[in-house]
User: What shape does this take?
Amino acid sequence: MSFLKTIDSKFFQAEIPYKPMGKYVHFLTIRITESYPLFQTDGELNKARVRAGVKDKTTISRLSMFKRKQSTPERLVGRELLRNYGLMTAEECEYNVNFAMDNPDCIIYGFAIGDSGSEKSKVVVDTAFSITAFDESHETFTLNAPFENGTMASKGENGSKPGEVTSRINQQDHIRPQVFFPSIVTLKDPTEASFLYVFNNILRTRHYGAQTTRTGRVRNELIGVVFADGEITSNLRWTQAIHDQMKANNTLNPPEPLDEDDVITAAKNAIKVLMADEFIVHTDFISDAFTPLLNEVKSLTGSEKEIQAILQKADAEAKAYANKHISKKKTAAKAG
Assistant: This one.
């Protein structure tokens, strides 16, 4: 069963292969913060000291969005859909607790459960970096925890002295809205169903960062996909090339936030220049060439009948792969 009419089936594998077969699809994504998310480790925002651009050799600090901060929310969205349409239950497959090892999430995004088995992820995501510098991309908030009366003054709760002002005040750095993180999500050896599964997860995911917060709203804007027989440029180099493009166009105006249209235009131009320097075989769907594909995917994933069919096809492929390859490993491990 074929879903897509806008691209050739030659870009896809007929089934999920056991060994790498040299087909890649790269999703060109701009992640845009729309609230105040937290991408942090040990209580501090993640950042890196790097060069501003490929041509601009000024050194700046940039916010970092580590790979697991990107892939985990997207696979969790996919898992929700699988449960919603009856292709997975919470009892048989719980993330990072008990993997069923035979569904699209486990086979496409991978798992590792000690001696019981493991599967390497076919989705590759690397650390993404903000286009703007750290100082322009974050701000510090003072957080408090008021009593139920809505004030910071006690009324004798838990034996406290009435009128005493609570000391439950803390400070936390947050990432500002309209901060842009260019990110390339790579899927190895895609089947048509796995391509649509990962594509849909990227489009649907809306929250990233610390899961304990009520913020974290992030929108993903896909500007294209690249089918290739190898890896393409890194997130950092793409980000630096975008910075160079925007600097040349005088669209970097700190401390003002970046204009989304300017970022998208620069991102498309930068990736075209970078892809022209690649020495691999690739077919690019960027700008106008990408619009028909994007519209077709949105139409498919926006239909209950079509999304069910996509998920069922992805599930059938995953179970066929698990029966053929993972079951043998489990049997051999038990015998050993």
Summary: The helical segments are 67-84, 104-109, 134-137, 192-204, 235-248, 260-276, 291-301, 304-335. The chain is about 35% helix and 25% strand. The longest helix spans residues 304-335. The chain has a mean pLDDT of 88.
